[in-house]
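Q: My labmate handed me this sequence with no annotations at all. I'd like to see what the chain might look like in three dimensions before we decide whether it's worth expressing. Could you predict it?
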Amino acid sequence: MRSLNNPIIWYLMRGSGVVTLILFTIVVVLGIATTRRFGTARLPRFVTLGVHRSVSLLAVVFLGIHIATALADSYAKVSLAQALLPLPSAKYGLWLGMGALSFDLLAAVIVTSLLRHRMSQRVWKGVHWLAYASWPLALAHSVGIGTDKAAGWFLDTGVACAGLIAATLAWRLLALRNPYPKYLGAAS
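A: Here is what I predict for the chain of 188 residues:
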């Protein structure tokens, strides 16, 4: 891909990275809610699952934009190998490698989700758990490599994403005591 020295590319790379982190956070939260069989009388479980899939697709689109613009931007100087292989780089240290590893884990989740009908539920679910490892790597990549890492709005975004994941995980772990949720309005 040809390098471009265009501030629009640079802003698009930064913006798509932040949007990807936010969307990826929502995907993980909805994934946790889906595994908990979250649903109410007004919001059935299939709605949570459908939104999870739709936001996942949107996150992949923004991730594609983020990677493509990083490859195209002459300031970032990211090669295709650096975007795909989790290796440290002279310019970005481990942070770029963390982003690449996060992408690799996410790619495994995407591929197995597309091929879900050809594998057992157990295998698919085992690979799908990689999203839990991919998300903190994406957060570390964002916080460590971003040119806005010291900006208040960016730190607030990172803290909000981490807080949302932590709260959802706490909800999920506390809910393990009750194997099946009680739906609103259901008889006990």
